[in-house]
Amino acid sequence: MSKQRFVVPAVAGAIGILALAYGLPAQAGGDKVAFPDKFKDGVLYATVDRPDVKQFRELYASQAAIDAAKKGQPLPDGAVLTMVQYSTLLTAGGEPQKDKDGRFIKNKLVGFAVMEKRAGWGAEYVPEYRNGEWEYQAFTADRKANDKANLFACFACHKPLDKQDFVFSYDKLKAAK
Description:
The chain has one domain (about 5-175): CATH 3.50.70.20. Helices cover about 25% and strands about 25% of the residues. It is built from 4 helices and 5 strands, in the order H-E-E-H-E-E-E-H-H.
């Protein structure tokens, strides 16, 4: 197991213990985040192949979010980052098929993961659990909130990224056109 894959569960476990100690729910509440119907009006700033889950992902953000990242600033109030998740076409051996450029070939829409930042959000979380003013929500392919999603895992996974506003793709935002 790589060090990175060990650290995330360890951080998640530690945050979970703190959450229980402070009486916080085991699941974070994504009820503040509505489905971003106009996410495609924003900028498709990156596509990502995820071999671990055999997915092709598209990442969307507003121009304001990209402009802030290009300046090395935290993303602005109202920023919404949308990740569109697709399954991939698979070979007979169950591996993702690749196009002529070596990228996964997207197949069916699987769901959406959304992070949204609003002034004052996150104030109810203890510092060890809080991701600035970000909240998270997962949506099914039919754009309904996914009540089976473990949103707590989003907070735990993004928590170590405080120097880049808790955003994994911050550098991709900076590099967007």
